[in-house]
Amino acid sequence: MQWRGRRQSNNIEDRRGSGMKTGGLSIGSIILALVLWRVFGISPETTLGVAQQVGQVNEQSAPINETANQVENREFVATVLADTEDVWTPIFASFGDIYQPPTLVMFKGSVKSACGMAMSASGPFYCPSDQKVYLDTQFFVDMRRHMNVSGERNGSTELSFNDQVGDFAQAYVIAHEVGHHVQTLLGISQEVRRAQMQATKRQANELSVRQELQADCFAGMWAKKNHERTGFLQQGDIEEALDAAKKIGDDYLQHKSHGHVIPDSFTHGTSVQRQYWFYRGFKTGDIQACDTFGVNQL
């Protein structure tokens, strides 16, 4: 996909270099406060207050010692996020509403969100409580390996987008999480949670599947609208997304992990379902066509 040269979103919160913190402050800040107190008699409360203010500003800026690949990762993510903003804003305006874009948090290893702590292994996720998308770009490295796409350079585990292979699959992941944000803005997520509270485990899982498949459809819809706007898609991009959808289907993952599948435990949909709904969104470009809750057969 063609992604360079377009607008980059400012709604990025980069926590990759924030380091170990205690109560929102780094260990180094606490040690510095104690030294200034002992040597110069400066109140620890004063020092920590300043450090916390500085930390809040730095937390949203890029890490100081970024590698070239890390810079490219951030620029890629910021460009895709901007593309989602530029697509969803006029869609919301068309039905008389204002699109309020999410913040995308880039982190490394683990992260604290309004939905609790999360590790890289949990994959990208959207937290409706703070309306933020959380993403550890190590997931993209793992994703490329899983898809048998080579993104390594000279033994490095950092991801490079120089060869452009596999990048649209990664854009699909971001667009899917933004799709959950769209569901929150439209009130769909809230309705699903209320229904799940009164449902059986199996019924709650089915509601989750429908919600995830709708986010896939929204991602496909975004791809179509963004291509009409920018012409960013290249040959093979849609096939990449469909391959990614296949390999994150509940049945594919369960069979790969356990050798068998348990349909009643599905929460995201089968490979075929995820492929179908992404492609449905892409072919139609119509938000009404993404009503996964209004159909009997998924």
Automatic annotation (TrEMBL):
Keyword vocabulary terms for this entry: Membrane, Transmembrane, Transmembrane helix
A Pfam family per the record: Zn_peptidase
InterPro entries: Uncharacterised_pept_Zn_put
GO cellular component: membrane
Keyword Transmembrane: yes
Subcellular location: Membrane
Membrane topology label: Single-pass membrane protein
Transmembrane segments: 21-40
Full protein name: Metallopeptidase
Source organism per UniProt: Moraxella nonliquefaciens
Lineage: Bacteria, Pseudomonadati, Pseudomonadota, Gammaproteobacteria, Moraxellales
